[in-house]
Amino acid sequence: MPTDNTPSDNERSSSDKEAANMKLETVVQRFLEKCNELNENPSLWRFVEENTDFIAKNSDRNSAIEAKWAGIFGAAMKQRKIEVAKVNKKPDFGAVALKMLELARESSKDHSTSAVTATTKTPSHTSFSTSLSSADKARLAQTFQNLKEDRFWALHLDESLNVDQRVIEFARSCNYYHPSQSLILDLGDGNWETVFSGAQLDRIEAFGDPLFCDLPAEIIEILNEVSKLKTPMEAYKFARTLDFDPIKEPLKHWVSLELQKSSQLHFYGDFHLTSMLESDQQYEMWSFLKSMVNGNKIKAVGKEGSSKANADENNKKRCISAVDPAIHRKMGRKMDLLYESSGKELGCIEIGKDEDQTKEMKDGLLKMPIVMHDMLLQVAFSESLLRCVHVLGFVIVGMCIPQMSSSMKSNSETSPT
Protein backbone atom coordinates (compact mmCIF):
# COMPACT_ATOMS: atom_id res chain seq x y z
CA MET A 1 0.00 0.00 0.00
CA PRO A 2 1.50 3.34 -0.98
CA THR A 3 2.55 5.78 1.71
CA ASP A 4 1.60 9.43 1.73
CA ASN A 5 4.91 10.28 -0.02
CA THR A 6 4.46 7.75 -2.83
CA PRO A 7 2.92 9.24 -5.98
CA SER A 8 -0.20 7.57 -7.28
CA ASP A 9 -0.33 6.04 -10.79
CA ASN A 10 -2.22 9.07 -12.06
CA GLU A 11 0.27 11.47 -10.47
CA ARG A 12 3.19 9.47 -11.90
CA SER A 13 1.60 9.42 -15.35
CA SER A 14 0.96 13.15 -15.21
CA SER A 15 4.54 13.77 -14.07
CA ASP A 16 5.99 11.62 -16.86
CA LYS A 17 3.84 13.40 -19.43
CA GLU A 18 4.96 16.79 -18.15
CA ALA A 19 8.62 15.74 -18.34
CA ALA A 20 8.13 14.43 -21.90
CA ASN A 21 6.50 17.71 -22.95
CA MET A 22 9.37 19.71 -21.45
CA LYS A 23 11.88 17.56 -23.37
CA LEU A 24 9.91 18.02 -26.59
CA GLU A 25 9.95 21.79 -26.05
CA THR A 26 13.73 21.67 -25.67
CA VAL A 27 14.13 19.58 -28.84
CA VAL A 28 11.86 21.90 -30.86
CA GLN A 29 13.69 24.99 -29.60
CA ARG A 30 17.09 23.53 -30.56
CA PHE A 31 15.69 22.53 -33.94
CA LEU A 32 14.45 26.07 -34.62
CA GLU A 33 17.86 27.47 -33.63
CA LYS A 34 19.46 25.03 -36.07
CA CYS A 35 17.13 26.16 -38.88
CA ASN A 36 17.98 29.76 -38.08
CA GLU A 37 21.70 28.93 -38.38
CA LEU A 38 21.06 27.26 -41.75
CA ASN A 39 18.88 30.18 -42.84
CA GLU A 40 16.03 27.88 -43.86
CA ASN A 41 12.37 27.56 -42.90
CA PRO A 42 11.52 24.59 -40.65
CA SER A 43 10.31 21.44 -42.41
CA LEU A 44 9.18 18.04 -41.20
CA TRP A 45 11.94 16.45 -43.28
CA ARG A 46 14.65 18.45 -41.48
CA PHE A 47 13.06 17.82 -38.06
CA VAL A 48 13.13 14.03 -38.59
CA GLU A 49 16.66 14.21 -40.04
CA GLU A 50 17.98 16.07 -36.98
CA ASN A 51 16.01 14.17 -34.30
CA THR A 52 15.90 10.52 -35.41
CA ASP A 53 17.03 9.20 -32.00
CA PHE A 54 14.58 11.35 -30.04
CA ILE A 55 11.62 10.36 -32.23
CA ALA A 56 12.54 6.66 -32.02
CA LYS A 57 12.85 6.76 -28.22
CA ASN A 58 9.47 8.49 -27.87
CA SER A 59 7.42 6.40 -30.30
CA ASP A 60 5.29 3.29 -29.91
CA ARG A 61 5.81 0.54 -32.49
CA ASN A 62 2.07 -0.08 -32.55
CA SER A 63 1.20 3.52 -33.46
CA ALA A 64 1.20 5.30 -36.81
CA ILE A 65 4.59 6.98 -36.33
CA GLU A 66 4.52 9.19 -39.43
CA ALA A 67 1.05 10.57 -38.75
CA LYS A 68 1.80 11.04 -35.05
CA TRP A 69 4.97 13.08 -35.55
CA ALA A 70 3.58 15.03 -38.47
CA GLY A 71 0.81 16.11 -36.09
CA ILE A 72 3.20 16.91 -33.23
CA PHE A 73 5.49 18.93 -35.50
CA GLY A 74 2.58 20.76 -37.13
CA ALA A 75 1.07 21.65 -33.76
CA ALA A 76 4.42 22.91 -32.43
CA MET A 77 4.90 25.16 -35.46
CA LYS A 78 1.28 26.39 -35.34
CA GLN A 79 1.64 27.25 -31.65
CA ARG A 80 4.66 29.41 -32.51
CA LYS A 81 2.98 30.83 -35.64
CA ILE A 82 5.82 29.58 -37.84
CA GLU A 83 5.22 28.67 -41.46
CA VAL A 84 6.35 25.15 -42.36
CA ALA A 85 8.52 24.91 -45.48
CA LYS A 86 7.36 22.67 -48.33
CA VAL A 87 10.28 20.56 -49.58
CA ASN A 88 10.50 17.80 -52.16
CA LYS A 89 12.22 15.40 -49.77
CA LYS A 90 10.12 12.95 -47.74
CA PRO A 91 10.89 12.57 -44.02
CA ASP A 92 13.02 9.46 -43.45
CA PHE A 93 10.76 7.59 -41.06
CA GLY A 94 12.46 4.40 -42.28
CA ALA A 95 15.56 5.47 -40.30
CA VAL A 96 13.31 6.04 -37.28
CA ALA A 97 11.84 2.55 -37.61
CA LEU A 98 15.32 1.02 -37.87
CA LYS A 99 16.43 2.90 -34.76
CA MET A 100 13.35 1.66 -32.89
CA LEU A 101 14.23 -1.92 -33.82
CA GLU A 102 17.78 -1.33 -32.62
CA LEU A 103 16.52 0.01 -29.30
CA ALA A 104 14.12 -2.92 -28.94
CA ARG A 105 16.94 -5.42 -29.57
CA GLU A 106 19.18 -3.67 -27.05
CA SER A 107 16.38 -3.74 -24.49
CA SER A 108 15.73 -7.45 -25.03
CA LYS A 109 19.47 -8.20 -24.69
CA ASP A 110 19.62 -6.27 -21.41
CA HIS A 111 16.87 -8.49 -19.99
CA SER A 112 18.10 -11.75 -21.48
CA THR A 113 20.00 -14.34 -19.46
CA SER A 114 21.58 -15.95 -22.53
CA ALA A 115 25.15 -15.05 -23.52
CA VAL A 116 25.11 -13.10 -26.76
CA THR A 117 28.29 -12.09 -28.60
CA ALA A 118 28.66 -8.32 -28.63
CA THR A 119 28.99 -6.64 -32.02
CA THR A 120 29.89 -3.12 -33.01
CA LYS A 121 27.53 -1.97 -35.73
CA THR A 122 27.90 1.01 -37.96
CA PRO A 123 25.27 3.55 -36.79
CA SER A 124 22.00 3.30 -38.73
CA HIS A 125 22.12 7.05 -39.25
CA THR A 126 25.02 9.46 -39.28
CA SER A 127 25.88 10.81 -35.84
CA PHE A 128 28.84 12.56 -34.24
CA SER A 129 28.38 10.82 -30.88
CA THR A 130 27.73 7.09 -31.15
CA SER A 131 29.57 5.84 -28.07
CA LEU A 132 31.27 2.45 -27.81
CA SER A 133 30.53 0.09 -24.95
CA SER A 134 33.14 -2.12 -23.27
CA ALA A 135 31.73 -5.07 -25.20
CA ASP A 136 32.09 -3.15 -28.48
CA LYS A 137 35.74 -2.41 -27.71
CA ALA A 138 36.40 -6.05 -26.82
CA ARG A 139 34.91 -7.18 -30.12
CA LEU A 140 37.01 -4.66 -32.03
CA ALA A 141 40.16 -5.90 -30.29
CA GLN A 142 39.31 -9.46 -31.27
CA THR A 143 38.61 -8.45 -34.88
CA PHE A 144 41.92 -6.62 -35.19
CA GLN A 145 43.77 -9.52 -33.58
CA ASN A 146 42.46 -11.85 -36.31
CA LEU A 147 43.97 -9.74 -39.12
CA LYS A 148 47.09 -11.00 -40.89
CA GLU A 149 49.91 -8.65 -39.98
CA ASP A 150 52.08 -9.78 -42.89
CA ARG A 151 49.54 -8.15 -45.21
CA PHE A 152 49.51 -4.80 -43.44
CA TRP A 153 50.41 -1.79 -45.56
CA ALA A 154 53.86 -0.39 -44.84
CA LEU A 155 55.40 2.78 -46.27
CA HIS A 156 59.17 3.08 -46.28
CA LEU A 157 60.25 6.58 -45.34
CA ASP A 158 63.30 7.22 -43.17
CA GLU A 159 62.03 4.28 -41.19
CA SER A 160 59.34 1.72 -41.97
CA LEU A 161 55.86 3.09 -41.31
CA ASN A 162 53.18 0.45 -40.72
CA VAL A 163 50.09 2.43 -41.74
CA ASP A 164 47.53 -0.23 -40.87
CA GLN A 165 49.01 -0.70 -37.41
CA ARG A 166 48.73 3.04 -36.72
CA VAL A 167 45.11 3.02 -37.92
CA ILE A 168 44.27 0.07 -35.66
CA GLU A 169 45.94 1.69 -32.63
CA PHE A 170 43.95 4.88 -33.19
CA ALA A 171 40.70 2.92 -33.72
CA ARG A 172 41.18 1.11 -30.40
CA SER A 173 41.78 4.41 -28.59
CA CYS A 174 38.45 5.92 -29.70
CA ASN A 175 35.54 6.15 -27.27
CA TYR A 176 33.05 6.86 -30.06
CA TYR A 177 32.34 5.29 -33.40
CA HIS A 178 34.90 6.36 -36.01
CA PRO A 179 35.45 5.11 -39.59
CA SER A 180 38.91 3.85 -38.55
CA GLN A 181 37.13 0.98 -36.80
CA SER A 182 36.15 -0.19 -40.30
CA LEU A 183 39.82 0.26 -41.31
CA ILE A 184 39.04 3.45 -43.23
CA LEU A 185 41.83 6.02 -43.46
CA ASP A 186 40.20 9.26 -44.64
CA LEU A 187 42.89 11.89 -45.18
CA GLY A 188 40.25 14.64 -44.99
CA ASP A 189 39.72 13.87 -41.30
CA GLY A 190 41.81 16.16 -39.09
CA ASN A 191 42.10 13.46 -36.42
CA TRP A 192 44.86 11.79 -38.45
CA GLU A 193 47.14 14.79 -37.87
CA THR A 194 47.58 13.47 -34.31
CA VAL A 195 48.53 10.01 -35.62
CA PHE A 196 50.81 10.78 -38.58
CA SER A 197 53.27 13.58 -39.23
CA GLY A 198 52.70 16.04 -42.07
CA ALA A 199 55.36 14.34 -44.20
CA GLN A 200 53.79 10.94 -43.59
CA LEU A 201 50.34 12.18 -44.59
CA ASP A 202 51.78 13.71 -47.77
CA ARG A 203 53.48 10.41 -48.61
CA ILE A 204 50.28 8.44 -47.98
CA GLU A 205 48.26 10.79 -50.18
CA ALA A 206 50.81 10.58 -53.01
CA PHE A 207 51.04 6.79 -52.88
CA GLY A 208 49.36 4.65 -55.54
CA ASP A 209 48.18 5.00 -59.10
CA PRO A 210 46.77 8.27 -60.51
CA LEU A 211 43.08 8.79 -59.82
CA PHE A 212 42.06 10.33 -63.15
CA CYS A 213 42.98 9.32 -66.68
CA ASP A 214 44.73 11.87 -68.91
CA LEU A 215 42.34 13.99 -70.97
CA PRO A 216 42.55 13.77 -74.76
CA ALA A 217 44.59 16.61 -76.28
CA GLU A 218 41.51 17.89 -78.16
CA ILE A 219 39.52 18.27 -74.92
CA ILE A 220 42.40 20.10 -73.24
CA GLU A 221 42.52 22.48 -76.19
CA ILE A 222 38.74 23.13 -75.89
CA LEU A 223 39.03 23.83 -72.14
CA ASN A 224 41.91 26.21 -72.75
CA GLU A 225 39.70 28.14 -75.18
CA VAL A 226 36.85 28.20 -72.65
CA SER A 227 39.16 29.74 -70.04
CA LYS A 228 39.63 32.75 -72.34
CA LEU A 229 35.88 33.49 -72.65
CA LYS A 230 34.50 36.38 -70.61
CA THR A 231 30.67 36.19 -70.71
CA PRO A 232 28.02 33.46 -70.53
CA MET A 233 26.89 34.33 -74.05
CA GLU A 234 30.42 33.86 -75.40
CA ALA A 235 30.60 30.45 -73.72
CA TYR A 236 27.19 29.48 -75.10
CA LYS A 237 28.09 30.47 -78.67
CA PHE A 238 31.46 28.75 -78.46
CA ALA A 239 29.84 25.50 -77.33
CA ARG A 240 27.51 25.59 -80.34
CA THR A 241 30.45 25.87 -82.75
CA LEU A 242 32.00 22.57 -81.64
CA ASP A 243 31.82 19.87 -84.30
CA PHE A 244 31.56 16.26 -83.12
CA ASP A 245 29.84 12.91 -83.52
CA PRO A 246 27.72 12.45 -80.35
CA ILE A 247 27.98 8.65 -80.60
CA LYS A 248 31.70 8.33 -81.30
CA GLU A 249 32.77 11.37 -79.26
CA PRO A 250 30.63 11.30 -76.08
CA LEU A 251 33.12 13.36 -74.03
CA LYS A 252 33.16 16.20 -76.55
CA HIS A 253 29.35 15.98 -76.73
CA TRP A 254 29.16 16.27 -72.95
CA VAL A 255 31.41 19.35 -72.86
CA SER A 256 29.29 21.07 -75.51
CA LEU A 257 25.91 20.34 -73.90
CA GLU A 258 26.92 21.17 -70.34
CA LEU A 259 28.69 24.37 -71.37
CA GLN A 260 25.51 25.54 -73.09
CA LYS A 261 23.34 24.54 -70.16
CA SER A 262 25.51 26.19 -67.50
CA SER A 263 25.79 29.37 -69.60
CA GLN A 264 22.02 29.69 -69.87
CA LEU A 265 21.68 29.77 -66.08
CA HIS A 266 23.26 33.25 -66.15
CA PHE A 267 21.43 34.74 -69.13
CA TYR A 268 18.60 36.50 -67.29
CA GLY A 269 20.24 37.63 -64.05
CA ASP A 270 17.82 35.66 -61.86
CA PHE A 271 20.08 32.77 -60.89
CA HIS A 272 20.29 32.49 -57.08
CA LEU A 273 21.78 29.30 -55.67
CA THR A 274 20.63 29.98 -52.11
CA SER A 275 16.96 29.94 -53.13
CA MET A 276 17.19 26.55 -54.85
CA LEU A 277 16.11 23.30 -53.23
CA GLU A 278 18.59 20.41 -53.09
CA SER A 279 16.71 18.63 -55.89
CA ASP A 280 16.87 21.79 -58.06
CA GLN A 281 20.60 22.04 -57.49
CA GLN A 282 21.05 18.38 -58.41
CA TYR A 283 19.17 18.60 -61.70
CA GLU A 284 20.05 22.15 -62.76
CA MET A 285 23.28 23.34 -61.14
CA TRP A 286 25.24 20.10 -60.82
CA SER A 287 23.64 18.00 -63.56
CA PHE A 288 26.99 17.64 -65.33
CA LEU A 289 28.05 15.20 -62.59
CA LYS A 290 25.16 12.99 -63.65
CA SER A 291 25.45 13.41 -67.42
CA MET A 292 29.24 12.89 -67.48
CA VAL A 293 28.72 9.11 -67.63
CA ASN A 294 26.52 9.31 -70.74
CA GLY A 295 27.87 7.22 -73.58
CA ASN A 296 29.32 4.39 -71.49
CA LYS A 297 28.07 1.48 -69.39
CA ILE A 298 27.93 3.47 -66.16
CA LYS A 299 24.51 4.81 -65.15
CA ALA A 300 23.77 7.63 -62.70
CA VAL A 301 20.74 6.87 -60.52
CA GLY A 302 19.26 9.77 -58.53
CA LYS A 303 16.19 10.32 -56.34
CA GLU A 304 17.92 9.45 -53.03
CA GLY A 305 18.47 5.77 -53.73
CA SER A 306 19.55 3.39 -51.00
CA SER A 307 23.06 1.96 -51.44
CA LYS A 308 22.87 -1.78 -52.11
CA ALA A 309 26.56 -2.25 -51.31
CA ASN A 310 26.07 -0.68 -47.89
CA ALA A 311 22.92 -2.75 -47.28
CA ASP A 312 24.69 -5.98 -48.27
CA GLU A 313 27.57 -5.24 -45.90
CA ASN A 314 25.17 -4.41 -43.04
CA ASN A 315 23.29 -7.67 -43.57
CA LYS A 316 26.11 -10.10 -44.39
CA LYS A 317 25.82 -11.87 -40.99
CA ARG A 318 22.03 -12.08 -41.13
CA CYS A 319 20.68 -15.62 -40.69
CA ILE A 320 17.48 -17.48 -39.87
CA SER A 321 16.15 -17.72 -36.33
CA ALA A 322 17.95 -20.13 -34.01
CA VAL A 323 19.06 -19.25 -30.47
CA ASP A 324 18.19 -15.64 -31.25
CA PRO A 325 15.41 -14.44 -33.56
CA ALA A 326 16.25 -13.45 -37.12
CA ILE A 327 16.70 -9.72 -37.52
CA HIS A 328 14.99 -7.65 -40.18
CA ARG A 329 17.04 -6.72 -43.24
CA LYS A 330 18.60 -3.30 -42.81
CA MET A 331 18.39 -0.63 -45.48
CA GLY A 332 21.53 0.88 -46.97
CA ARG A 333 22.24 4.54 -46.45
CA LYS A 334 20.44 6.85 -48.85
CA MET A 335 22.53 8.86 -51.27
CA ASP A 336 21.40 11.71 -53.53
CA LEU A 337 22.95 9.97 -56.54
CA LEU A 338 24.62 6.59 -57.16
CA TYR A 339 26.88 5.53 -60.03
CA GLU A 340 26.19 1.93 -61.09
CA SER A 341 27.41 -0.53 -63.72
CA SER A 342 26.61 -4.23 -64.17
CA GLY A 343 24.93 -4.39 -60.78
CA LYS A 344 27.89 -2.84 -58.95
CA GLU A 345 27.99 0.59 -57.34
CA LEU A 346 31.02 2.68 -58.33
CA GLY A 347 30.44 6.01 -56.59
CA CYS A 348 27.97 8.42 -55.04
CA ILE A 349 27.02 12.07 -54.51
CA GLU A 350 25.60 13.94 -51.51
CA ILE A 351 24.17 17.44 -52.00
CA GLY A 352 23.72 20.14 -49.35
CA LYS A 353 21.63 23.20 -50.14
CA ASP A 354 23.78 25.65 -48.20
CA GLU A 355 27.30 25.81 -46.83
CA ASP A 356 26.71 23.80 -43.66
CA GLN A 357 29.87 22.61 -41.89
CA THR A 358 27.96 20.08 -39.78
CA LYS A 359 26.32 18.45 -42.80
CA GLU A 360 29.62 18.53 -44.71
CA MET A 361 31.36 16.72 -41.86
CA LYS A 362 28.57 14.17 -41.43
CA ASP A 363 28.35 13.41 -45.14
CA GLY A 364 32.02 13.76 -46.04
CA LEU A 365 33.72 12.25 -42.97
CA LEU A 366 31.19 9.69 -41.70
CA LYS A 367 28.44 8.73 -44.10
CA MET A 368 30.18 8.65 -47.49
CA PRO A 369 33.47 6.98 -46.46
CA ILE A 370 31.51 4.07 -44.99
CA VAL A 371 29.32 3.69 -48.09
CA MET A 372 32.31 4.04 -50.45
CA HIS A 373 34.24 1.49 -48.37
CA ASP A 374 31.43 -1.03 -48.85
CA MET A 375 31.29 -0.27 -52.59
CA LEU A 376 35.03 -0.80 -52.89
CA LEU A 377 34.90 -4.15 -51.10
CA GLN A 378 32.39 -5.41 -53.66
CA VAL A 379 34.24 -4.09 -56.72
CA ALA A 380 37.82 -5.00 -55.72
CA PHE A 381 37.00 -8.68 -55.25
CA SER A 382 40.47 -9.97 -56.18
CA GLU A 383 43.99 -8.97 -55.15
CA SER A 384 44.90 -8.07 -58.74
CA LEU A 385 42.21 -5.35 -58.67
CA LEU A 386 43.26 -3.72 -55.42
CA ARG A 387 45.26 -0.87 -56.96
CA CYS A 388 43.32 -0.73 -60.22
CA VAL A 389 40.00 0.27 -58.68
CA HIS A 390 38.86 3.68 -57.42
CA VAL A 391 35.42 4.55 -56.06
CA LEU A 392 34.50 8.22 -56.44
CA GLY A 393 32.32 10.46 -54.32
CA PHE A 394 31.31 14.11 -54.45
CA VAL A 395 30.04 16.13 -51.47
CA ILE A 396 28.34 19.27 -52.78
CA VAL A 397 28.01 21.99 -50.14
CA GLY A 398 26.73 25.31 -51.43
CA MET A 399 29.13 26.26 -54.24
CA CYS A 400 31.87 23.80 -53.22
CA ILE A 401 32.41 20.27 -54.57
CA PRO A 402 35.03 18.40 -52.52
CA GLN A 403 35.90 15.22 -54.45
CA MET A 404 36.58 11.99 -52.60
CA SER A 405 38.24 8.77 -53.66
CA SER A 406 38.29 5.33 -52.08
CA SER A 407 41.01 2.86 -53.02
CA MET A 408 42.98 -0.02 -51.54
CA LYS A 409 46.72 -0.25 -51.09
CA SER A 410 48.64 -3.15 -52.57
CA ASN A 411 49.56 -5.17 -49.49
CA SER A 412 46.69 -4.14 -47.21
CA GLU A 413 43.58 -6.16 -46.57
CA THR A 414 41.02 -3.37 -46.22
CA SER A 415 42.56 0.06 -45.92
CA PRO A 416 40.75 2.54 -48.19
CA THR A 417 41.99 6.11 -48.25
Describe the structure.
With 417 residues, the protein is α+β, with helices and mostly antiparallel strands. It has three domains: 102 residues, no CATH class; 73 residues, no CATH class; 190 residues, no CATH class. Helices cover 44% and strands 9% of the residues. It has 15 helices and nine strands. The strands form three sheets. It has a five-stranded mixed beta sheet with strand order 3-6-7-8-9. Strands 1-2 form a two-stranded antiparallel ribbon. A two-stranded antiparallel ribbon has the order 4-5. β7, α15 and β8 form a beta-alpha-beta unit. The N terminus and C terminus are likely disordered.
Q: In terms of structural class, how would the helical and strand content be classed?
A: alpha+beta
Low-confidence stretches: 1-13, 109-121, 410-417
Number of helices: 15
The largest sheet is: 5 strands, mixed
What is the strand tally?
9
Q: What spatial form do the alpha-carbon principal axes imply?
A: globular
Mean pLDDT across the residues is 77
Q: How many whole angstroms does the radius of gyration measure?
A: 25 Å
Spatial strand order of the main sheet:
3-6-7-8-9
